[in-house]
Amino acid sequence: MKLEPTPSIDESLNSNESRASLDPKPIDSSNLHTATDELQHVKLTKTRSLREQIIDDYNQTIQEETDATNTELLSRRDFSPEDALSIHLTQSHIPQDLHDPEDGSALEKDLESQPDDKLQEPEIPDGGYGWVACFSVFLIMFNTWGNNAAFGVYLSYYIANDTFSGATDLQFAYLAGMIVFFSQIFSPLALIVSSLVGLKKTMAVACCTHFIGYLLASFSTKLWQLFVCQGFIVGASYSFIFVPAAALIPSWFLKKRGIASGIVYGGTGLGGLTYSLSINAVIQRTGDQRWSLRMCAIISTVLISLSVILIKFPRPVKREPFTWANFKKSFKVTLLNTKVWLSPQLYSVTTWFVLQLFGYNLVLFSYATAARSLGLSQHEASVLTAIINVGQVIGRPMMGILADKYFGRINYSIFLTAVIFILIFGFWMNATSFASLLVCGLLLGYSLGVANVMNSTFIADAFDKTEFAAAWSILNMAIAPLVLFVEVIALKLKKNDSTGNPFRNTQIFSGCLYVGSVFALLAAREWHIRKTLKARRSKSIFELEKLSTSETPNEEEIEQLRLRIAKYDELLSGNIIDCLKRMLYPLKI
């Protein structure tokens, strides 16, 4: 990552940026130069220790959160993909004056440009019919990603039985990746179509194709038919159902958004648990997968249809007509934003997300199959898939709450990632009994969804709201080609001997993916730390400027500010050692 040189003290003192957000009171230039000279002298002779600076930055973080108004804090903290999708879906045009992510938070600038009374009383219901809308999105997640989370039951059944004559394990492995591939690759298109056609219409058509896909899959007699129906049609339908639904939560909630998001995220885990047990029960009772596919078709369609009926925005939405010109304009904004493509932050977050989601699907789809290879029954394997989803029911809602309130999003994501690869290397690789695999699956399930929950917030933290659609689309498209081969790789790494653990190489590979994702996230963390320190340095310089020119200067405060700025100059230098310090700097990020 290219490190920008830290601006000199004179440049910071005279920059318009450092003056814009503070009191523009005229200052005596002679006093200003005196303060600058003294600061340069302090920089050359004395700086505070790193420990003192860490304590000081921690206290500043606490003070910033205390001083912020509730509405402002919630808006900054909880800006999510739903916010940006809502902007994309409800605006008739997208502004072209895009900001530089290095130049501070666009959301902060937007908030600062609003009158105080608008900040204090946003036009957001924070409840009422919003709970019905929240329940609708919960059902969407329950019946799309929750349904997909149970695919491991199908995969272990297809591989263990000669369901389609002549089909190989690798061919079934491609089917596992196809559903996620098409659901990811069509996300940008679903975003564009929703913004032009409308929320309910897009979801209603996708619900119909979703039903057709599952129903035709139950009548499939050849493998290519299963690929088309359960792979392509169902996977593509997921995109056009869940992407439009994602725009609802911020329209209805602000102060209660954490609770609402927890309910929505819990739908994926609860859906995986319910469908895992139900699919296995139907397979055991009927002897094959046909009626389980029909069950998925009927139940998911009924529940999604109920969501389409109930779901709505809290206020009327103005849209552009669906024309070829408007489609091209939306496509350009969504996928051809050169400023987003040239942002280094995009690649660190995208690399992290790709490695995380690759590992997530590898573990989720392989866990039951690996258990079967150790001699466990089909029923026990399906219970293991279900127990992972129990962990997700608990873990996903907690991630956002704990990360925002206590640890910071990136910090908590790094911690959970470390937990995952420790569990893989230290627990899963050595677990052979059903009981030990149950405990391991529960712990893995709690942590595995970190990328699914946090990826959008990382993009939101790094990009302007008008850039989010492009960055989020690129993020989703980047993972699509890789997830197509995720289970193929898992089976290729499988040992063909009957002794020991046949999936050991698969487990090692998935663990290494999570280790690699930590380094990608550390690069993103360094970017955020550098941006935060730059902002605090500019603020400290201006405070020093004001104190130095006041009629009754407080020498103790002036000295503290000088030492703080000198330490920021040291931390913001461009050498490798200070870059590593920023990566590991203990700040809530």
UniProtKB/TrEMBL annotation:
Keyword terms, alphabetized: Membrane, Transmembrane, Transmembrane helix
Domain of life where this protein originates: Eukaryota
Primary location group: membrane
GO CC aspect terms: membrane
Compositional bias per record (Polar residues), positions renumbered to this chain: 9-19
GO molecular function annotations of the record: transmembrane transporter activity
Region (Disordered): 1-34, 90-123
A matching Pfam family: MFS_1
Domain Major facilitator superfamily (MFS) profile per the UniProt entry, residue ranges: 345-589
Recorded topology in the membrane: Multi-pass membrane protein
Transmembrane segments: 129-160, 172-197, 203-220, 232-253, 259-283, 295-313, 346-368, 406-428, 434-454, 466-486, 506-524
Biased composition (Basic and acidic residues): 96-121
Compartment(s) of residence: Membrane
Stored InterPro entries: MFS (IPR011701), MFS_dom (IPR020846), MFS_trans_sf (IPR036259), Proton-linked_MCT (IPR050327)
Protein family according to the UniProt entry: Belongs to the major facilitator superfamily. Monocarboxylate porter (TC 2.A.1.13) family.
Descriptive protein name: Major facilitator superfamily (MFS) profile domain-containing protein
Organism for this UniProt entry: Wickerhamomyces pijperi (Yeast)
